[in-house]
């Protein structure tokens, strides 16, 4: 079982989840938080580019 690092949701089979491997360990993001995360990254890139 894995738990979402952002919202704390848990899943037996993390289909569609994102796995982030960092120096501090492995983080899992549920499908919903993954989408939010991608959107925020894109938003940051947009801000950086423009
Ligand atoms: Zn989540």
Describe the largest sheet: 2 strands, antiparallel
Mean of all residue-level pLDDT scores:
87
Portion in helices: 25-40%
Content-based structural category: alpha+beta
| Beta strands, count | 4
Summarize it.
With 50 residues, this protein is an alpha+beta fold. It contains 1 helix and 4 strands; from the N terminus they run ββββα.
Helix and strand arrangement:
Blueprint: E1 2-3, E2 10-11, E3 18-22, E4 25-29, H1 31-49
Antiparallel strand pairs: 1-2, 3-4
The protein binds zinc ion (ZN).
Structural notes for this entry:
The chain has 50 residues and is α+β, with helices and mostly antiparallel strands. It has one domain (2-49). The chain is 38% helix and 28% strand. It has one helix and four strands; from the N terminus they run E-E-E-E-H. The strands form two sheets. Strands 1-2 form a two-stranded antiparallel ribbon. A hairpin with a 6-residue loop joins strand 1 and strand 2. The longest helix has 19 residues, at 31-49. The radius of gyration is 12 Å and the shape is elongated. The chain starts with a strand and ends with a helix. 6% of the residues are buried. The model has no long low-confidence stretch (mean pLDDT 87).
Key features of this structure:
two-stranded antiparallel ribbon, 50 residues, alpha+beta
């Amino acid at each position: 079982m894995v738990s979402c690092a952002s919202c704390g949701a848990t899943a037996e089979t993390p289909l569609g989840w994102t796995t982030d491997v960092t120096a501090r360990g492995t983080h899992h993001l549920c499908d919903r938080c993954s989408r939010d995360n991608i959107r925020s990254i894109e938003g940051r890139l947009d801000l950086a580019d423009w």
